[in-house]
Amino acid sequence: MHHPAPTGADHDPRPQLSFRILGPVQVVTGGAETDIRPPLCAAVLAALLLRQGRRSSSAALIEDVWGDAAPPHALGALRTHVSSLRGLLEPGRAARTPARVLVSHGEGYALRLEQGALDLAEFDRLTDAAERARSAGRPQEVRSLLDAALRLFRGEPLAGVPGPHAAAQRDRLAERRLDALEARWEAELDLGGHTAAIGPLRALADDHPLRERTQELLMTALYEAGRQAEALEVHARAARALRERGAVPGPRLERIHRRVLAGARTPAAAGGVTALRLPQGTADFTGREATVDQLRAALDHGRVVAVSAVSGMGGVGKTALAVHVANGLRDRFPDGQLFVDLRGTDALPAEPAQVLGDFLRALGVVPGRVPALPAERAALYRSLMADRRVFVVLDNARDLGQVRDLLPGGPGCGVLVTSRTRLAGLPGATLVDLRELTEHEASALLVRLIGERRVRAEEEAARQLLDDCGRLPLAIRIVAARLAARPAASIAQTARALADERRRLAELSGDTDDVETTFRLGTDLLDAEQLRAFRLLALPDVPELTRAAAAVLLDRTERQAEDLCEALVDLSLLESIAPGRYRYHDLLRLYARKTAAEEIPADECDGALLRLLETYLALARDAYRATMAGDAFPLTLVPAPSAEGHFATQDSATTWLLDELTALLALTEQAAHHPRIPVTIAAELLLSADPLGRHANQPHGLDRAARAVLEAAERAGDPGAEAVAHYMLGGAHAQNFELATAIRHFQVTAGICRREGHSTLLGLTLGVLAGCKLGLHDFPAALDLLTEALPLAEAAQSPGCVGYVRGFLGLAQLATGAPEAAMESGRAAVALAETSGDREGQAAALRVLGQICLWLGRPDEALDCLSRSLDLWRVTGSRFRESLGLSLLAEAHNLLGRPEEAAACAEEAREAAEQHGGGYLLGRALAQLGHACAARDRASQAAFHYREAHALFDRLGMPEAREMAARLQQTG
């Protein structure tokens, strides 16, 4: 049906019952407006309205309204809200009369909307008509239609409506409103209203400094109105705002910039390329022409993954070259650009799993949907990149292992890797070794930085200065920054300063003493507050600092801390890697720490580091509680500020722990080695990583951090910290199924906890100790330990720990001849996990109940429990646990006489175990494959699998080795 452009009098009359969501959610009946209360009722109505008449299942509505925080009674609450809405929408309807507006459809609902009854639908209609008018070249009609569409907004869309779906839709609708505003003022410019548009566009640009389209329109309006200087100011301000957030101006904005500079008044062309986290390019990039051409040629040879690698010493300009090449290839890779600093020269380089998390979020994956395990993140990354043309810059890589999972697998992508080492094993790569600048290039760079007149006036001094800098871009830029900041200073003065304080900067390749002079020249420009920040920010052993962490270290507000950080960035003394995130060049960090020790009192440095440690500890404790579905933190040894409630869901807490793990373990080691930091802080930071063991995802570096805490605890004579260190070391060995070693550590922890009265940690320790005993088939000892652990876990009000203990108790009871008690314990563990909303605990409890059913000869029940458990493990992303679940499913199928199904599950279990290094789990999978082969009279294949499983079990000292030996004898 054709809809004429609205002009007021000829607009279709509104229906008797209409709805508004472009503002507070309202129902309009006969002209009377009604706000929807309570907020959850408004959320239900909004979720239905956003579907614009389409049906929605109850499960989908619950997901929209509550998300991961859905209560157990969510379905009942949904029905109550639907009933309330029906009473509002059809107040005179008899109780038994079917609803005519909010109707039921099977297990869900739908709203029957008249034409024009929803403001969002009207907005869609008007903006679609405006787009057709724009394509037809009718700007006056475009302006009229968009004015009508924008009048439909009555404030923030979905104002006050709770829930994850409403939050996402609110952002989407706000974005659509801004798109319509920009299109409306573009039509104004097409009609020649440049002067009229300046004021509204300036206000819009001030409110949204990162919207390049708005800045472009404002520049166009100013320029066409004859205000060229103001247009250039807008570009400078926009470029600065983008640079501060790690981005660069896009092609459209640069196109209008060139037009303003050239004085040509022609419309800007359409198009553009998305840039994802690409840092600001160096405007004064100089030289390297042959290298740039070589890299571009290697990266431009058809729809294949093109990989180039650049190596060279620190400060030689690898990153600047990579960004320069990337900026020149925007049109070649229209789907975006990804950049990451892998910190290959740091003691703790970037973990590929954390980088993959950042990439996935940059590619549009909702944070709560980022998989927990590294292999799952890598698989999703490759899938998302398969059909895209994206350019990836992997800067400062340590080795091939660090970049392997970060290489996209799809055609059409390009990769540029920089490293201090030559990555000769990178398949199909074009390798480039970057050297220092030539004399001509170094001189040209200095001219670009401080001006030709100054350099030509002191050519000999400039040549001497460049020689002393070793013609390294980093050193040249630092010295040039000092000269640029002091226009009255001569180059000769700076050259004499270099000569007086170690002039041999040509030996900058890793020699800290030589670099120190260059860095001192940069810090001479700082005021007292900036110099204090430069030194204190270098104290923590973390790869990068957030704005919030900087504020804690400096004991300043976040705004003050950000201003100080940006001042250091402007002087090349700190790097801005993303909005609100900073890092030091490795040599600058060493210099900053050295001068901090010399110039700042030790108690001030210690106080800054202690503040940061306590802040991380508070967040880590809360992440522990959220990840463990409300369990108490096992051992509180030191008071710390509360951060309770920071994490709303298990997923968000687990993601934070995974992403911050490198920093947590680095700070743990630093605190353990620090002579004036209490070892209790290091111990609690270490303990906060324990929930990751639920994924069987042993953190890289955990063992080293735990041993550092143990050594510090023994030096300090602190039994609580010693107990934590042994507990975490036991967990590390248990995850590798080194059960005898794990038991020794857990026994030490249990002994300390009994002496010191640490009942919560004791209950947890006895539970995992019993698990090790079960693994070694010492069932009476496991039963005694679990019987002692259960009341301790219950007294600690830790539902996760109680469920864990009850599940293992069921296994021990079954093995010691109490089958009915075993079933009761297994079912109680499942019920407890379901009540607490602990998905991972529920998966574990169902697995245990499945095992009990399996050993009691109830394979059908076992199959049901194990299938449900496996589904939950797959949702949580634990491939390690998935392998165990698949092996148990294979065992159930074997017992049911289904060798084909058993073999399929066992093959999948073997694949998962091989990928994730599970020696014991690989043995379980091979054993079930052997059983399946034996059932199909394939004796030689069964013997092969039994032999492989026996070797794995025997190496780990597991009792299953005896069974495999017996099976081998049976198969001959």
Gross CATH architecture of the largest domain = Orthogonal Bundle
Distance between the termini: 80 Å
Fraction in helix: 55-70%
Strand order of the largest sheet: 8-9-10-7-11
> How would you name the CATH homologous superfamily of the largest domain?
Winged helix-like DNA-binding domain superfamily/Winged helix DNA-binding domain
Describe the structure.
There is one protein chain. A hairpin with a 2-residue loop joins strand 5 and strand 6 (108-111). Helix 26 (602-627) packs antiparallel against helix 27 (650-673). The chain has seven domains: 1-191, Winged helix-like DNA-binding domain superfamily/Winged helix DNA-binding domain (Arc Repressor Mutant, subunit A, Orthogonal Bundle), CATH 1.10.10; 205-272, Serine Threonine Protein Phosphatase 5, Tetratricopeptide repeat (Alpha Horseshoe), CATH 1.25.40.10; 289-433, Rossmann fold (3-Layer(aba) Sandwich), CATH 3.40.50.300; 439-523; 528-600, Arc Repressor Mutant, subunit A (Orthogonal Bundle); 622-777, no CATH class; 889-972, Serine Threonine Protein Phosphatase 5, Tetratricopeptide repeat. The longest helix has 27 residues, at 164-190. The strands form four sheets. The chain has a five-stranded parallel beta sheet, with helices on both faces. It has a three-stranded antiparallel beta sheet with strand order 1-2-3, with no helix packed on it. A three-stranded antiparallel beta sheet has the order 4-6-5. The N and C termini lie far apart (80 Å). The chain is built from 42 helices and 14 strands. It is an alpha/beta fold and 972 residues long.
